[in-house]
Every structure is written in C-alpha cells, then in structure tokens.
Design a protein that fits this description.
The complex is a heterodimer of chains A (142) and B (475).
Chain A: E1 2-5, H1 7-20, E2 26-34, E3 37-46, E4 58-60, H2 62-74, E5 78-87, H3 95-99, E6 106-113, E7 116-125, E8 132-139
Parallel strand pairs in A: 1-3, 1-8, 5-6
Antiparallel strand pairs in A: 2-3, 2-5, 6-7, 7-8
Chain B: E1 3-6, E2 20-23, H1 28-38, H2 43-46, E3 57-61, E4 64-65, E5 81-86, E6 88-90, H3 103-108, H4 110-113, H5 119-128, E7 130-134, H6 140-150, E8 154-158, H7 183-194, E9 199-203, H8 212-217, E10 221-224, H9 229-242, E11 246-252, E12 255-261, H10 269-272, H11 285-288, H12 293-311, E13 320-325, E14 330-335, H13 357-360, E15 373-374, H14 376-384, E16 389-393, H15 397-402, E17 409-410, E18 428-432, H16 438-448, E19 454-457, H17 460-467
Parallel strand pairs in B: 1-5, 7-8, 7-10, 8-9, 10-11, 15-19, 16-17, 16-18, 18-19
Antiparallel strand pairs in B: 1-2, 3-4, 3-5, 11-12, 12-13, 13-14
Helix pairs in contact in B: 6-7, 6-12
The chains are: A alpha/beta (142), B alpha/beta (475).
Amino acid sequence: MTLVLEPRHRDAMRRHGEADYPREACGLIGGTAEDGRKIAVSLVPLRNARTDALRTRYLIDPDAFRRAQDTLERDGLEVIGVYHSHPDHPPVPSAFDREHAWPWLSYVIVEVRGGRAGEHKSWVLADDRGAFGEETIWQSRS
Amino acid sequence: MAVTILIPTPLRPFVDGRGVLQLEATTVGELLERLTAEHDALRPHLFAGDGRLRSFVNVYVNDRDIRQLSQKETPVQPGDTVSIVPSIAGGTAVAAELPKLSHEEILRYSRHLILPDVGTAGQRKLKGARVLLVGAGGLGSPAALYLAAAGVGTLGLVDFDVVDKTNLQRQILHGTSKIGTSKLESAKERLHDINPNVRIETFETRLNSENALDIIREFDVVADGTDNFPTRYLVNDACVLLGKPNVYGSIFRFEGQASVFYAKEGPCYRCLYAEPPPPGLVPSCAEGGVLGVLPGIIGSIQAMETIKLILGRGETLIGRLLLFDALRLKFRELKLERDPDCPVCGRKPTITSLIDYEAFCGVGSEPAYDGAEVTALDLKEELDAGKPIVLVDVREPHEYEIVNIDGARLIPLGDLPERLRELDDHAEIVTHCHHGARSLKALEILRAAGFAKVRSLKGGIDAWAVNIDPGMARY
C-alpha cells in the first residue's frame, strides 16, 4: 500500500508535533482507500488521552475514535491511518507501537527534536503482527 | 434475525473487505468466537496469545462498552449491533523495552551475565545503548574494541582520515594491510569481526559546528578521542547543549587525562579549561610524540566509564579529573567543581548554540608566512646551484639521530634564543623541523632578533624525504 499525503497534511502533522512537544501528539488520518492506495483527505487532531508518561506514550480512546470515525463517515471518509510524534526519538515504531498496532492502518510518525519537527515516516503492521514495514508516502501536489 | 457486527476499517481486509456482518450468537464471547472461526486471520488482531481480548480492542453492544457490562458474557439478542472499536496507543521506546538477548549473545556475554552488577538487565542496557566515538585513532581504538566486545548495541564512529603507517604504533584498531584505506572502513571490518551483533554507524566527516548536533543527538554517550582543541570544545559544547555525557580522554608523550563531563550532574570541560591554550603552545602527538601503550590505557578507561554510565553502576569520573603518569606509573586525581559562571553550563550561559571553534581556538589566526616558506624542491635547486644557505635543524637531538639532512646544523627550538650568536645574521638561513611547524616558530624568533634572510622548509624533513631523498627514513 502507498499513503498519499498532501503537503498541508504533512505540515499540519509537523506543527501538531511541535506544538505538543515534549509531549506526544496524536491524531487520525481520514481519507479513502482505492487501488492499493490510501489517500488522505483530512486530519483529525486528537488530545493525547494518557494521564501519565505523556512524553513517551499516546492514547486515543475508543470514544474519541468513534466520534472521529462518525464525523469522517458523514463526509464519506474512513479512518485510514494514525499519526503521532516521537519527541526526541527517530520516526521508527517502538516495540510498544507494534504491540498495540492495528493492521492496515498507516502509522505516520513525526520525529520532533528539541521542539522542531524532523523526519516523518509511515509504517504498516504486517498481517501476522510480527513487524512494522515502512510504507511509501506519496506526496501529492495539491 | 441475527446480530449485526460493525467491523472497523483496519480489520476489513480480514473479513473479505466487508464493514458489516451478520452472525447468530447469544453472548459477545460466542459472537467473537464465530467471527474468528469464519475469518481465522482476524484472530491475532483481536486476541492476545493467552486468548484474552487485546487491551486496545473495544467491543460495544449497541452503545455500551462490554467492560461496563459482563465482558465476554454480555448477552446479545437478534437486532443488537456489536461494534469493534479501536483505541490507538503507542509511543517511543523506553527503558522497559530493552532489546532481548539471543542465545548466541547469552553465551558470548556469559562473563558479564554472571556479574551481579551487569547481569541480563545490564547486558540488555548495553545492547540498547548508542555510543558515539569521536575519532578512530589512538584513544578511539581501544575504546571501540572494548565497547564492541562488551556488546554495546550501536557504535557511531566519526573520522575522516586514512590509515597511515605512523598510526600503527598505537592505533590497534587498524592493521598493516589497511594502510591507505579509510579508518572507518578498517574499523568497521575489525569491529564486526570482534562482534557481529554490533551495529556500526559511520560518519566520514570532520565534526564541525554544522553537523555536530545532528550527529551527537542520536547517541546516548559520547567518547571524545580527538587530538585537537577546536574539536574538544565543540564536542563539549554540543554535549552540554544536548544534555549528553562526554567521556573525555587526552594523551601526550607519557601522560594522560580522563574524566566524564556531564553538565546534568557535574562540571563540563569549559569549567575546567574556560579558554584554550594559545595555538602552538601544546604540541600534538605528531609533534611531541606519544608512547603507544598510553592511549591503550586512557582509551580503555574511557570504555570503562562509558559502560558504567550505561549500566548506571559504580562511581564514574564525573567531577574528577584523573591524571596518569606512565613513567612513574602513578594515578592522581583532581576534584573538579562546576563553574557557576561557565559560559556554556553555568547559571547564565552566553553560549547557547555552537560557535566557530577554529576561531575560538585561534586556529588560522597565526601570522601569515607569505614568502617565508620554501618548498623542498626549490631548496634543493638553490643548494644545487651553489647558493650559500645555512640549514638549521630545530628538532630535538633524538630526532636528529633518526634522520637528518646532510650539512644541517642542529639547534633545538628550545635552545635557539640562547644560541643566536652561533648564526651569522647576514647569512641566508633556512630552518627546518619534522613537518614544518616548529621551524616557523624558529623563523619568528630569528626575524625578531634581526635576522633578515630567513625562510622555513615547508613540510619539514618529511617533505624532503618524500620529494628529494626517497632513500631517507621517514618517521
């Protein structure tokens, strides 16, 4: 699968990561899926629901997920991915990310170093849950 | 009439792409059992190995979470809607997620594992650690060898040099067969042979103000094995700004120093030496020489301190400067205090980003020697043409003994001010040393004393050996 992002999506994820630094920022990516591609249409920034370890953990609770999902569905979209920031860590999934991951969804991780967004990468869980594979991000023009 | 199940998008590929299914069941548990019986690939995503529902899988009957009802025993009736709703969690790697050891590693590190202060937990810390070695030379050699052997998971190496024959007397990371190849390539091969489990990340560059933060940021501990002041201040400042411990070592002739500069817990290098010495005052190993075993001792101390920092065990050299005198075989220790006015780690730091360290250390600000240097080829031509030139060798007598240029007069640089009257101040003089640095200082002394026609041999006797007299020994 390939994830198609527009520059505004990328910028919004980076800004969100910077704004919440040194805490982990998180949100959902709404869009459509077709022909082996997930096309991002809108982002749903969410509050990190963790009450502890905000620098190293994020949580999107099921109610928030459901609300976001309902909103997206009204626009004919679905949840195609999740984004979160890694404050002062590379944009590579941790073992914790993998253990808690859902298949098929794109997991975009934005590295935020000292308050400045750096690299971002997208990852997809293998169907056997054994590993995260890096997913191609295709940058659309508009 | 059956129960309706709503499947979230991430799980739809496992149920033939459908978002809604109908199944007959009387409880949630039975319903999920039927669902996964029909779609086996779904099972690992809903249930953990012990058969329990995964913590991030939420099941709602109509609009109520089954955790608030009777969990899997929650009854369902025809017409009910059961939704599977994800909660999404994740985060960065934390200490609790240290890498596990393979059977091969358990055997390999058995002498560590049976040490109570290391053990499996400590060895996993080492495996999870990232250590940056600045310089793969005299100090970096033993440090890299021991850290790789000890099982530090990732070693970063910064160097831009190639292996030279004069390195081999002390840089035990490199062998004779690697002369002329890059030190990083040579190091990588040797370290992989010692321990193929170690990941080696190489940075073939000179560490500078532009790249230092980006490189150092990725590591947990920095071991500084540099041989010059600009890089030493650069490493120090970058470590202070990034909050990393800097395991310091330096060597000269028969003496060495080691400490751990860690601004979070103690002083930094600038608290000890606020300003660098004037350029040229402290000779480098190339100028002053060094006993080959000395970096072996100091570099090994750096490896030891690095491992202690990773393990969080013992008393490190934070706040202490260790001085080692190899000739007397004595270790001494100085207590170091944090300087509250330190420009980089003090209360009101004036250095908040990296500066120009070459300029700070006065490198490049030495007087210009335009026309004051003569190349070996030109000198040879002038001598052959019969020009009366007095060649003054300003090296030490033991260097003169190794090799010398026919007809050159030996006046060591340190003796020169007292022996000026031995020279004719109208004569055409060319000073020379080993590589051309000391002879420029001699030139300054002579010019200041009124000698008008003085030049210095560029590249020293080494350039002479390379260009004029290939039969001459190089050192």
